[in-house]
Design brief:
By secondary structure, the protein is of the alpha+beta class. Helices cover 13% and strands 30% of the residues.
């Protein structure tokens, strides 16, 4: 994997404040949400917990075409074949059917079971087709917050690698252009470094399976709670990865929406402030066309 580092003055015109908060523009509607009382708690301790088969879901936005939710960790987007466990798809479909008994949610992208954060569903076939056919053009920004083991080298940079899947379903880097390999590009920024962990903001330019997990692992800083990709700790009993921002152009209009969910407070608590290692670099996220 090739890693390019950038200095603190890179992309000055893409300044944001805090965790992905952006200056509002005329074409954007910001959908803010107060922190959930469940935020930062493991799945087994949530109100209406997954363990009791009635998970609580925060609905961030809904119109006749799309619905946006905050996915909790520990909940699959779609249940495995033969499983009787309720999935996020089941919950969103039940919500839609309260007003439209024949309606169903349509999955247009995924988050791993143990990743939390913002997700969008289509509410009908035409919206699903429009989103999936034009995903790279409609999705302007997908941002994540991760707790990585160790201290990241530098304040910001770019992961640029070619990923391929093995027979066990895990991803790994290979040489450019290898059979079955897809290019994966992620911009990263170090928010703060502590004694054992780093709080990192990441922005996807491509959306490959396990992209962030593989690239952080291969940089020598796996995500906490990710033994599949080499982590040595599990401080929160979960994968410490959260999709905190999704900027989306509506599939049937030119309106641009920014959906944001702050990272769990438990993430912040893991990164104990170290006076010798503060990082407050500006965000690297800009409007750009996704690469394939």
């Amino acid at each position: 994997m090739r890693q390019r580092r950038e200095g603190p003055d890179t992309h000055q015109d893409s300044k944001r404040h805090g965790f992905g908060s952006r200056e509002p523009t005329r074409s954007k509607t910001l959908c803010a949400k107060p922190p959930s009382p469940n935020q930062g708690k493991p799945a087994s301790q949530r109100c209406g917990s997954i363990a009791r088969h009635s998970p609580t879901i925060d609905f961030l936005f809904e119109d006749k075409d799309i619905i946006v939710v905050e996915k909790p960790e520990g909940l699959s987007v779609i249940a495995a074949e033969g499983s009787r466990t309720k999935s996020l798809y089941d919950i969103v479909t039940a919500h839609i059917q309260r007003k439209n008994p024949k309606g169903r949610a349509a999955v247009v992208h995924r988050l791993d079971r143990d990743t939390s954060g913002v997700m969008v569903f289509a509410k009908h076939a035409a919206a699903k087709k429009r989103l999936m056919d034009n995903w790279n053009e409609l999705v302007i920004e997908r941002g994540y917050i991760a707790v990585a083991e160790g201290t990241m080298q530098g304040e910001s940079g770019i992961f640029d690698s070619w990923l391929v899947e093995n027979r066990g379903g895990s991803m790994y880097s290979t040489k450019p252009g290898a059979p079955g390999a897809l290019r994966a590009i992620t911009r990263w920024r170090l928010i703060e470094a502590g004694e054992r962990y780093s709080l990192v903001e990441l922005s996807l330019e491509t959306g490959r399976k396990h992209q962030i997990r593989v690239q952080l692992s291969e940089s020598g800083h796996p995500i906490a709670g990710d033994p599949r990709y080499g982590s040595q700790s599990d401080p929160l009993g979960r994968l410490c990865l959260h999709a905190h921002i999704l900027v989306l152009r509506h599939p049937f209009s030119t309106q641009e929406y920014s959906f944001e969910c702050p990272p769990p407070e438990s993430f912040l608590g893991l990164v104990k402030h170290s006076p010798n290692q503060p990082r407050t670099g500006q965000s690297l996220i800009t409007k750009r066309k996704r690469r394939e």
